[in-house]
Amino acid sequence: MSRVPLDPRTAPSFQTAAKVLLGDAQLRKNVRHATDVIQNKRRRLVEEKHDWQQMRESGRQIRAHALQHLDIYLAEFERNFTAAGGHIHWARDAAEAQRIVIDLVKQTGTSEVIKIKSMTTEEIQLNNALEAAGVHAFETDLAELIIQLGEDQPSHIVVPALHKNRSQVREIFRKKMNLPNLGETPQDLAEAARQFLREKFLRVPVAISGANFLIAETGGVCIVESEGNGRMCLTLPETLISVVGIEKVLPSWQDLEPLIQLLPRSATGERMNPYNSLWTGVHPGDGPTNMHIVLLDNGRTDVLADHEGRQTLQCIRCGACQNACPVYRQTGGHAYGSVYAGPIGAILTPQLMHMEHSQSLPYASSLCGACYEVCPVKINIPEVLIHLRNKVVEQNGWYAPESLAMKAVAQAFLSEKRFRAAQRLGRIAESPLVKKRKQNKLQVLGQEEAQTPGWIGWLPGLLGGWTDTRDLQAMPKETFRDWWEKRNEKGSNRT
Amino acid sequence: MNVALFITCYNDTLFPSTGKAVVQVLERLGHTVTFPAGQTCCGQMHWNTGYQIEALPLLPRFVAQFEHAEAVVVPSSSCVAMMRDHYPMMAERIAAEGEDKTLPERVAKLLPRIWEFSEFLTKKLGITDVGAYYPHRVTYHASCHGLRGLGLGDGPLSLLKSVRGLELVEISNLEQCCGFGGTFAIKNAEVSSAMLAEKTQAVLNTGAEQCTACDNSCLMHIEGALHRQRTGVGTKHIAEILAHTEADAAAEANNPVEVTV
Amino acid sequence: MSTARDVIFQRIAKAKGASTPEAAHIAYATIERNYQSAPSLDRAPIIHLLEDRLREYDAHVYRVTESNVGEQVKQILAARNIQRVLVPDGLPESWLQGAIFEIDNQQSALGLNDYTAVLTTATLAIAETGTIVLQNAPGQGRRAITLIPDYHLCILRTTQVVETVVEAMRLLEPTKHLPTTFFSGPSATADIEMTRIKGVHGPRFVDVILVTDEIL
Ligand code: SF4
To answer: Residue A277 and residue C53: Cβ atoms within 8 Å?
Structure first.
């Protein structure tokens, strides 16, 4: 049941993938519906909190502070979690994290594990690595189960299967759970998942999770979820292995005050997640006796090193930016070639890839700012996008065709004379493209020609994308500054 | 008041009629308009596309042109957002590179005097009725930079509501981007077109004759599709609607629309 | 050979400069926390708000006085036709009426799966969000017992109800080391077409008895 994971190193460019996905009407309808529903719920619940902006600001400051002193808080967390009977492991990259997890699972002697939805384990492609090592992982989150059984890929960080509708889910379950008579209501489908997984919860001795927050002061872990599959995994097995990015640490318990409010309202439009679980290490008689946390770098320290990109690590993975993003809403998540889709993916993925892959992602945005507006920890995503674009331009070198053109225009902007010349030149260059208007003027009394320019229906090369669906009005004969000068010469002006 | 007009590079070249309209409105309200001749571009296209090195020299140039103005009016919210969001940091960078140490302070002094056109009317002058007459059904498109970047809010709508004869119809997806996004429209033409299709559909649903906005960039995009689809619906910068008066209407009535084949 | 841990700490130090606990401590104190932290409502409306929120989640909510708890439990269990109920250690005898109440004896998950109902008290409840907080404490027990049975009857006193999340977090501060579960309504998912479906893996049915122990 292994599937090809989303891998930024092999994924096509955003433009290429988007082109294909735009043709999938069902997918676009599903994505539109889901993001509409969550956005509306979110809006209502954000509006009812009169202290929302204060919480956001606190959330931002807490996350930024934790990153500024990351070394201190990681060491503190390690100390306290270890003192509470847990074990900490450090993984420099995905391969090291895979190895650690596989070894830990092997030590228990099991060949099956249950899993809670975790984008971090998706990021390191853990399921495939486990499979290769002879360990089968059962995804227990309903959406992840749909993805796993459907041999699909997550397309959203909170609701990973939002691109599937009920009949598509039913088909998958019918086939993979062997339920020929399965009904089609969401209730039927959830019930099927309950039956399918209950036995596994009661039997499988090892669970693998991510985490929403680590708390340095107590060595605590916080996981939020909806279905109860998380609680099953966190409390019933003997062994719990959590793979967590190093950026997830918070200084203290009180930092949860704003964050556990910001997260559910932003993520699912709920006042609180149905379940928040918090614990500190091993608690005799309650939950796993064998507890491990794998702290993962995998490019995060690179992001930390970039002063302008660093805020990306403040992310609490609520997915609000995805729901709000007009680009994501057209294409869905798979176009981003990474488990992190949408605006957060557009800034996180290239940085985690050391800017060696995913260079098309920083351009997968119209910079409309909707993501920044909804982000509960105030990550200025447009600013980071622009910053990353600059890096891509530097990588491409001055000799790239676009770069040459942009430099030429910039030169023109440096002097009024050159700018005027460029304006004139532009008019000449475009003139063969302008559809000449056969003007059958019935009565045109003194109308300036400049007011009736023609239209361009086709543009060459790089610019052709525009005229595939849009016409372009031809340049007027007279620029504003020409008009202004003439007007002043005529003396009709007071200045 | 003495108002320096920063027309912006693309309005200068592609939409001179917007500039004329701004001049007309401001002069009608009794202000004096100047046009610093050395002006070119605010640097937005380069900055947002990743050409920061190319954008940087445009900043000292802009400051030199406009720093003595009593007020600077710009008929483009995205250019004003560019200045407010990035100029302080760009100035710091130039200063840090040892080029012009005075720049950050000069930028800080200049920025509060820079206004987007509709914002200048509603926030600086505190007026909504500029004496315009425009007897058409119109819908307003809130550009992202105006809406989120500048927080224009209801300002432009209140201006339109005060235009005599104008029937304002609200668009359904007001807060949604039209898909222009500068070079995004070319680099991601397919996605941009899909976003545009939603926007033009919403424009058509209003039954408006004209779609207006504070940014010709969005309007050029929207009009591009409206024209391609031969919808008969046009676009007009808000300044051109606000410049329009009873006298213009009378002149138009005597000049039947030309028929083009 | 340096360990992964060393390498990661070196990378962090290189990325932003090493920090010290003192510097972190001083900077931490400057974090602004201007969000609401005190109740905005009187006690009676707070309790009403909790009841409304719980009902939004399809829980049944009963308000009784201390002396009537046992009778209320009996009625609820009878109506649901429940004869056998799992309970943690430490509940008042007087509450346990109308069924066989079996104290959790650390049986395996499979053993817990034989129970259809569990009865506990709670640490506190948050009115604004309709949240009930359970901890590993007398009368609440370990986490698994409130997870596996399909029906959870939770009894708490009105004085345990706060209005906001922030107040709750501050009250929980002294017991922050305990295993803690916040639950807000029954287990649910919206993973299929954003339709909220009650009951995937956790208890599908939750009822709450609020014991009035203050003047409202
Ligand atoms: S970037 Fe902000 S909005 Fe997007 S997932 Fe992260 S926290 Fe949520």
So the answer is: no
pTM: 0.93
Domain chopping of chain B, boundaries: 2-124, 137-254
Predicted pLDDT of residue A481? 94
Residue of A52, A56, A39 lying closest to A377 (CA atoms): A56
Number of domains into which chain C is organized: 2
Encode pLDDT of A465-481 as tens digits. Answer: 778 888 888 888 899 99
Q: What is the rounded distance in angstroms from the CA atom of residue C141 to the CA atom of residue A478?
A: 82
A51 contact residues in C (CB cutoff 8 A): 34-36
CA A336 / ligand 1 centre spacing (Å): 16
For B137-254, the fitting CATH number among 3.40.50, 3.40.1000, 3.40.630, 3.40.1130 is: 3.40.50
Is C216 inside any structural domain? no
- What single DSSP character describes residue A138? E
SS3 string, B34-56, reads ECCCCCCCCCHHHHHHCCHHHHC
Name the residue of A316, A373, A383 to mutate for ligand 1: max ligand atoms within 8 A of Cβ: A316
Q: Contact partners of C by the rule of 3+ C-beta pairs under 8 A?
A: A
Q: Give me the numbers of helices (H) and strands (E) for chain A, helices first please.
A: 22, 14
- Dmax (CA) for chain C in angstroms is 69
Which chain A residues are Cβ-neighbours of B7 within 8 angstroms? Answer: 480-481
Domain boundaries A14-305, corresponding CATH code = 3.40.50.10420
A389/B49 Cβ within 8 A? yes
Chains A, C: CB contacts under 8 A, how many?
A: 260
Measured between alpha carbons, how far is B147 from B143 in angstroms, rounded to an integer?
6
How far are the Cα atoms of A150, B50, B174, C85 from residue A372, in angstroms, in the given order? 33, 19, 17, 50
Set of chain A residues whose Cβ sits within 8 Å of the Cβ of C27: 65, 68-69
- Tokens of residue A473, six digits: 């009005």
Distances, alpha carbon A290 to alpha carbons A31, A107, A242, in Å: 40, 11, 11
CA atoms of C45 and C216, how far apart (whole Å): 9
Give me the domain span that covers residue C53.
Answer: 36-211
For domain B2-124, give the CATH number.
3.40.50
The best mutation among A120, A311, A344 to test binding of ligand 1, ranked by most ligand atoms within 8 Å of the C-beta, falls on A344
Per the prediction, chain A carries an average pLDDT of 91
Expressed in angstroms and rounded, the spacing between residue A57 Cα and the centre of ligand 1 is 14
Residue A439's pLDDT band, with cuts at 50, 70 and 90, is very low
